[in-house]
From TrEMBL:
Residues 1-22 are annotated as: Disordered. Its main location: plastid. Coiled coil: none annotated. This is Outer envelope protein 80, chloroplastic. The lineage of its organism: Eukaryota, Viridiplantae, Streptophyta, Embryophyta, Tracheophyta. It comes from Arabidopsis thaliana x Arabidopsis arenosa. Belongs to the OEP80 (TC 1.B.33.2) family. One of its GO terms (biological process) is chloroplast organization. Residues 11-20 have a biased composition (Low complexity).
Amino acid sequence: MHCHSDDVRFSSSSTRIHSSSSKEHSLLTNLKSCSKTFVSQLSNTRLSLTQMLESLKNRHTHPRFPQTRSIRRPNLPTQMLNSVTQLMIGKSSPISLSLIQSTQLNWSSNSGDENVEIIRGLNSPLLCCASLSLTRPNESTQSVEGKDIVQQQKGHSVSRNAEERVLISEVLVRTKDGEELERKDLEMEALAALKACRANSALTIREVQEDVHRIIESGYFCSCTPVAVDTRDGIRLMFQVEPNQEFRGLVCENANVLPSKFIQEAFRDGFGKVINIKRLEEAITSINGWYMERGLFGIVSDIDTLSGGIVRLQVAEAEVNNISIRFLDRKTGEPTKGKTSPETILRQLTTKKGQVYSMLQGKRDVDTVLAMGIMEDVSIIPQPAGDTGKVDLIMNCVERPSGGFSAGGGISSGITSGPLSGLIGSFAYSHRNLFGRNQKLNVSLERGQIDSIFRINYTDPWIEGDDKRTSRSIMVQNSRTPGNLVHGNQPDNSSLTIGRVTAGIEYSRPFRPKWSGTAGLIFQHAGARDEQGNPIIKDFYSSPLTASGKTHDETLLAKLESIYTGSGDRGSTMFAFNMEQGLPVLPEWLCFNRVTGRARKGIHIGPARFLFSLSGGHVVGNFSPHEAFVIGGTNSVRGYEEGAVGSGRSYVVGSGEMSFPVRGPVEGVIFTDYGTDMGSGSTVPGDPAGARLKPGSGYGYGLGVRVDSPLGPLRLEYAFNDQHAGRFHFGVGLRN
């Protein structure tokens, strides 16, 4: 076979190659050596960072607040990893992941002195293409004369030579010195990677190149040199390979938050084995995935192999350099001066300077700031802090109106008669952000035909200078409530009210996840009045209305309370424990101890939700009769009027219900309740329950519907009691 003499030139070098008279002779003489170099570099440049940041800035130059809030939601995994990769760029040294490998293809025979060198790349996540060149040693320094002719003939010559075939009699895998591999398993890996190169097969240069690629892609070898030798039995093709080092150790740098145990688990299967590029890539992917799952700005930036089989892993983690607050106008979205002190917002954040920035933690911080109740919208924008490799966080805040008036209405649970006597109206003024420190002031008035409550409440959600998130609440209240719960059902149909003047201060703080505690002092001045507003000390049955025998009782209470809230949902677990101790600072002040507890547990089975609740309490000492525990009613034992089961020093009330969806916001419910005073009704001063023939214990059962509304669940229920009497109950909100 004969072929034409052609000159071939590639952009990486210029050569001229002359072929001889036959295809096989041309193939063996022209292709004396071929080399392949694989270079992979995952590099992040500052230019890509600048582009990403400019994109972020453009997105938020004119924010639309409903869209801005969406930043609180976690990004998709690929978006988050891209953001992490780009934000890691600000290092003084380039962030790269590089592995350098080379292959050479040498065809040798006794005739001809021309050689061909091929350099190509490998399509791999870690390896990328380099270049391809054909060179002739004695012409490597020639001038570029005849460039145009070479360029025109290049495509045709390469295509023809790549398709020419030569018969191969034997295929072997050897070391770079031509010796047999010590490890037969590596030899088998290389042979298994071959696809085209088989004994007694006719091969082209392209097919040999592709099998070289496959050997390198197996991940076990750092170089591969195909050598063709013309023997009397035919052409022998040997792949001279150099295996990677054995994995003997790992050095991980700059991994401040990445657990060492996780790193060990990622690389554990490779210890003592030949380093495999594919396995190495899987380990890197798992480490990057660890950062991504936790929303952390971290990524593997570089990896290389040191002498002795030591793998060095470099990690880039973006630490928070600075956090700043920027207020935006509610209407224009332009920066403006805010009313809230920046320190008041910053102290709410769990993200601090020096920490590796976490997107999930940032979302929780956004939700925390929104929960303050003074912001309409909040978003966080990360930006690079120069060339430090750190990030600056800008929190955009849109403030709500800080104060205003409101009006509303409701139903009093203490009213047992009259079609409209239980309705109350309310009027209030509230300021959400006193002094720009998130302090609350609320002044409210509730008024009904019998009820009236005037209340002033001041709350500081987080006392300045305290690092335990302690809140302080100061309250002053003047109320008048029905006394029918304990002293109702008088034969002359007269009614009485209990007037209370109360002032107190309470401190609350979380002390464990989902647990909070409250401690306070409360002073109360309380007494009973008749329908004309005159003070009275006894009811119709001559039962005392005060413990001191005077027209009023005075008490100084020390209060301790602990609450476990679970997830906070309606069906979640809840537990509350409360203890009040009367302090007899003055001889006439009452001294008693009152303990109460409440527990609730919800269980979901299919579409149905089961809710079980239990409450109870006990009082020891001298206390006012109207402070006795009341049993019966909408929030106690349904099927009875308010307080109709009994009143005592002790009580236990249990309830179980099953709710199920009906349609949209409407739910159906089936329930049963039971309550008892545990025989303590007669120990209340004057035995008001015994005088009114209250049973002291009872149960009820029934069904109802509930509708979700902006005011909370609206409850309409019908229940029967153990006296075979039925009764409707209407309530707003959840049962106590």
